Amino acid sequence: MELNLRKGDKVWVEDKDSAWIAGDVLDSPGNKVHVETSTGKQVFVSSEKLFRRDPDEEERNGVDDMTKLAYLHEAGVLYNLQRRYALNDIYTYTGSILIAVNPFKKLPHLYNGYMMEQYKGAPFGELSPHVFAVAEVAYRAMIDDSRSQSILVSGESGAGKTETTKLIMQYLTYVGGRASEGDRNVEQQVLESNPLLEAFGNAKTVRNDNSSRFGKFVEIQFDANGRISGAAIRTYLLERSRVVRITDPERNYHCFYQLCASGSDAEKYKLSSPRKFHYLNQSKTYDLEGVSNAEEYKNTRRAMDIVGISRDEQEGIFRTLAAILHLGNVEFSSGKEHDSSVVKDPESRIHLQMAADLFRCDANLLLASLCTRSILTREGTIIKALDCNAAVTSRDALAKTVYARLFDWLVDKINRSVGQDPNSRFQIGVLDIYGFECFKSNSFEQFCINFANEKLQQHFNEHIFKMEQDEYRKEEINWSYIEFIDNQDVLDLIEKKPIGVIALLDEACLFPRSTHESFSMKLFQNCKFHPRLEKAKFSETDFTLSHYAGKVTYQTETFLDKNRDYTIVEHKNLLSSSKCPFVSGLFASASEESARSSYKFSSVSSRFKQQLQALMETLSKTEPHYVRCVKPNTLNRPQKFENLSVLHQLRCGGVLEAVRISVAGYPTRRNYSDFVDRFGLLTPEFMDGSNDEQALTEKILRKLGLGNYQLGRTRVFLRAGQIGILDSRRAEVLDASARIIQRRLRTFVTHQNFIAARASAISIQAYCRGCLSRNAYAARRNAAAAVFVQKHARRWLSRCAYVKLVSAALVIQSCIHADSARLKFAHQKEHRAASLIQARWRMHKFRTAFRHRQSSIIAIQCCWRQKLAKREFRKLKQAANEAGALRLAKTKLEKRLEDLEWRLQLEKRLRTSGEEAKSGELSKLQKTLESFSLKLDAARLATINECNKNAVLQKQLDISMKEKATVERELNGMVELEKDNTSLKKSMNSLEKKNLALEKELLSAKTDCNNTLQKLKEADNRCSELQTSVQNLEEKLSHLENENHVLRQKTLSISPERIGRILGESPQQKHSSAVVPAQIDRTSVFETPTPSKRVMPFSHSLSESRRSKFTAERNVEIHELLSRCIKENLGFNDDKPLAACVIYKCLLHWHAFESESTAIFNIIIEGINEALKGGDENSVLPYWLSNSSALLCLLQRNLRTNSFQNASAQRSGRAAYGVKSPYKINGPDDGVPHIEAKYPAILFKQHLTACVEKIYGLIRDNLKKELSPLLGLCIQAPKASRGTTGKSSRSPSVPQQSPSSQWENILKFLDSLMSRLRENHVPSFFIRKLVTQVFSFINLSLFNSLLLRRECCTFSNGEYVKSGITELEKWIARGKEEFSGTSWHELSFIRQAVGFLVIHQKRKKSLDEISQDLCPALTIRQIYRISTLYWDDKYGTQSVSSEVVSQMRVLVDKDSSQKLTSNSFLLDDDMSIPFSAEDMDKAIPVLDPSEIEPPKFVSEYICAQSLVKKPSTASVSKQIL
Asked: For this structure, is 212 an active site residue?
């Protein structure tokens, strides 16, 4: 189509390297267009070979639905996919078709459970494109339309078809799963069938490490309720030839390599490295990168267990695989005759024997079936020997047949194990089939694959055409028939009889002497005039078919061999008679029909044709959905996009054909509001504030003279090329406007320059006048300064002469004074020196005497210290012996601990569920005691070590003392012989030095001894600490024993007769157990505690019958009173809940907290639960939250657990003296009396705590349910709510719109919430928590919606949400901090995200500024998501720079590689209860129930009359007077 191009237009230019490249039009002379490409190259191109390019596409990061492209063509589609793939947006819609680009890396945040929950129930197109959205559409269509669905997943090898199929099945099991039956369930078996079929049907190819070498159609069956009820799997065209023949660098099927790496199983089957087996070593690739064959073998085994394959069957499967590998190593050589063959060598015979053992058949029969053939004739059976090549062919045929039957058995077993539901009403079929293939060498497999793709493409074209027509009908526009390319002629050429390719191939296979030359010749003779068939240029046997995706040349050398599916009767008879049940079960019993040959012919192509026809019939009965998988590059590397390869896949996948069908109709479809926003500037005279956007659209189109358009209900439909005309007109208007703006700007700039020049001239003149004046002033100032300087110079000369004279006089005086001072100093120096000499001589004499005396004193001190050290050593030795006493104490403690453990085991049997925490604490104390015992043993060992060290030191000390005594004796001798033996002075000096050394050693020994003493003291302290810890443990154990006694009271105090009486009593009597004691002589707890009744027991005043009747009536009255207090809304008295106060006062009056029964407490809890079920939740729940929390706080502050001694004393005291007051003042600081409560009261407090948490959770969940639709309206279509203005937001005449009524509804909702809570006097503590969690939910919902919907990440939507957040901020400011709390901080995520959306100049922001200043609370993944989804629909500004996006992508990929537990960009909802009973006790004000006046109806009940205050005598007398 010829384009009207002008200078500056954006176009796409065809390029041989990049398919299409962006360019700008420089000029358009004649038919040629001068274009400058993005690489800087200038070319001349015909306008027919150019495509228009939307200039706004560069500012966006692609569109999620390519039908939204302004120009729908292959260049726009390719560029859009490339932009989205660079941002890790791998999914894109083309209408209802999903295009999935393989990222070649893990993206776990896209496939977690939270993401599945988001897409569950979401309309198609509302959220970002995803494979879950397609599965959701199929599932909802099945439920709503009561029709079966199918999902067709196609693509070339390595495009991710298998993974996409897994995700679809995972989502279907998520939304349609059911409770498991037994150990396995249907959905788990369906999912686990994938790795099992992958192991036996997938292999490494040149393009993919896990390529499916078969087609698979999974039917997931559902019941009437939409739950999975069964499943079935069908397979197509397994590549059998891969079993025996592979090329480098491909691999055989995965299961062979897994079995070789299985370890013990491989040894059992005599398997070793894959390099030693012929069927595996034809390629040098044995391992896959990042894949462990041993781990995959375990996964395959686990999948077999889940699917339901027994251990014996698994043994048979792997036995068969091992036999195939051994069979491939059997080699043949020529026999005695030229046309015979025998086993080549002993190694081959070993493998033959091993294969026979694994097949459990006779080795000679196996050899005979491989080397000979039997032919039946009229005269008899003729045995024909086979040559080496024929024997190898027979061996390979046996291996292929066995593997094919094994694969078919696996599929049948999976179907039987999973189970098909014959009563299933609907089903969803998932087709995972190979895509269109075109290689350098294309054989029979490629022919069948492309034949299947031709069939599917025909079905695809019909579906796309039907969707186009449905779209036109939905919009109620006039439409005509759209022509589309029908590939029926290609299908007729392939499958039509009798001259189709398949028919001619089957005919050639029937004749033994036929060759591929004869088949090709016959094909060209019968179809030489067919337009879709061509003859290859350089080959006589190759032929070329023109498929929908392009021409493919097929090599026919192996067509006949691969089409023949011979079943050799000898092989069948041999294996059917195998002793292995599994192997014999793979082959039916041998047929008794006689034939001329043992070969049974079956056509692979005909069987595949029949399977394909059945598949098409199945698909025609379902509603199809399409997923096209694309492989972005041939290197399997992430973030690499090869344009030519992707474009070829788009053509092969039919995506461009769908685009062509759309282009044939009305390819450009715009909402009326978008159309008016973009093209309203062409007709400004119509933009008068009209609200009818459809009328505005029609006026614009009519004025421009466009006729090829249709106006639908919600959108305008334009023919191909019309949007280009509109954009050209728009560009002209914008250019004219730009020229006007430029002209006005130049005028403004010139005028400003003139004003600036005039102001400059005036400034220069003023400056010149100022300079002249300043010069004259300077001359006058210099003359005055000269006179002033002369005056001061004369004064300075006179002063200098005077100063010189004074200084000379001072020098003379100072010299005279110095001379006299030196003489005096010399005399004083001589006197001081004489005195110093005398002092030093006297000091020498006294120091010599002092040293002699000091040495004697030190000797005496050493002896004394030695004596003290010995005493201390004896004390330490005695202390070390006392460690044995500690050991005995430890033994006693251990025995006592064992006794306590035995008693605790007995107590555990009598405890209820509430005792688990105490048992846990006991175990912790036991572990602590053991640790203390270990510490005690360590301390004892340390003490022993210190004692040993002391002994060593003592020995050293003894040696030192002996040496010192010897020295002293020598010194005494030297003193006696000092006058006569002067020659021994040198030896005496040496001995003195030795003595000094010994004294130093003695001091060091003393220091060590002191250190040892200090360590021993520390050990004593540690022992004392351990003893203190043991005592504390004993106290804790006794405390636990006291608490456990409370639990035993109920069981130990009830007699067997009373148990039987309780089990048989009436419901009214059951209530009496709450207040009537078990002892007969105990006073009734309902009596008023008067002195007379304390003296005389109740049993003496009433008979047994009257007492039981009175008790029953009183219990019924109690039940009625409590029920009435709970059912009726008693309201509030002075902001205090009346019901809670009345119930607490009644329980206090009836001594219920001292009762051994829980019946009265059960009545209260059950009554509250019944009250919560009935009535209006908006009023009932806040009312009971206020009452139950008040009652809980009263219990929390006034109840206390009894100790063991108090319980014993109370039992003995009450048995003798009757009932005493329930209050026992323990003297707390607050002065509030604590009630000694028993176990039922404590259990009641726990149940009441759970009740408060339940009520709070119900209120919170109800608030979220009411708030969710309001938030959905706020985030879904803010533009739609403003669309009634009929005017674009860019129009300068319309002011900024105020926030829509949706935000006002949210504010009204918050106001009503506050009014409900405050009317029921809910404590501010709960209001603050509720409001905080409501705002947290608002933050979560708005933020997640922003990240999941591209249409929400816009500038205008950011302004809209920001205005709503401003209203919420005002609401928080109006409320007090007492109620709002930290609500404003809960909106941090949405506030920062919206603030990022509405800022300008995003491209100038660095990553640090964004992550630290603008969005500190957001993660890099969240910022990356917002940056890639953002597009400015108001001012056309761009998102962040590509450098920042690259930095964020690196960080995101790094986080993904670290495999974090949760790397999703979405926020999680917090469902926890944000408070505890202690928090309530601290936050809620003190409540005094004694000040509350009970309601009037309480006085009607005798059991509660004492609660009503009676008027005094004075007041009664006053009333009488």
From this structure: yes
The encoded tokens of residue 993 equal 């030095």
**705 catalytically annotated:** no
d(CA 195, CA 296): 9
Using CA atoms, how far apart are residues 80 and 1347, in angstroms rounded to an integer? 20
Beta strands in 701-822 (DSSP E): 709-711, 715-718
* CA–CA distance, 1426 with 1421 (Å, rounded to integer): 9
| pLDDT tier, 648 (very low <50, low <70, confident <90, very high otherwise) | confident
Max mean pLDDT among 745-754, 1164-1173, 1246-1255, 1336-1345 falls in 745-754
pLDDT level of residue 978 (50, 70, 90 thresholds)? low
- Spot the catalytic one: 154, 157, 563, 1341: 157
Known active-site residue 155: no
162: annotated active-site residue: yes
Name the catalytic one among 88, 102, 208, 329.
Answer: 208
Half-sphere exposure of 82 (CA within 13 A, CB side): 21
Residue identified by tokens 């009607």 is: 1500
Q: Are 1153 and 1222 in contact (CB under 8 A)?
A: yes
Is 148 annotated in the active site?
no
Name residue 730's amino acid: R
Q: Choosing from 165, 212, 1189, 1300, which is the catalytic residue?
A: 212
Of 51, 35, 55, nearest to 734 by C-alpha is: 55
Told to judge if 158 belongs to the known catalytic residues of this protein, a careful annotator would answer yes
Of these residues, 47, 211, 605, 1188, which one is catalytic? 211
**Residue-by-residue DSSP string for 549-578:** TEEEEE--TTHHHHHB--EEHHHHHHHHT-
The pTM for the full model equals 0.60
Which of 76, 429, 435, 654 is an active site residue? 435
Write out pLDDT tens, residues 1165-1209.
888 888 887 767 777 888 888 888 888 888 877 776 554 334 333
Active site residue 157: yes
User: Of these residues, 158, 316, 654, 1358, which one is catalytic?
Assistant: 158
Q: Give the active site residue among 57, 239, 437, 1359.
A: 437
Residue written as token pair 């279907």: 172
- pLDDT-derived band of residue 980, with 50, 70 and 90 as boundaries? low
Q: Is 573 designated active site?
A: no
122 vs 133: CA distance, rounded Å: 8
Choosing from 162, 164, 1044, 1115, the catalytic residue is 162
pLDDT greater than 90 at residue 497 = no
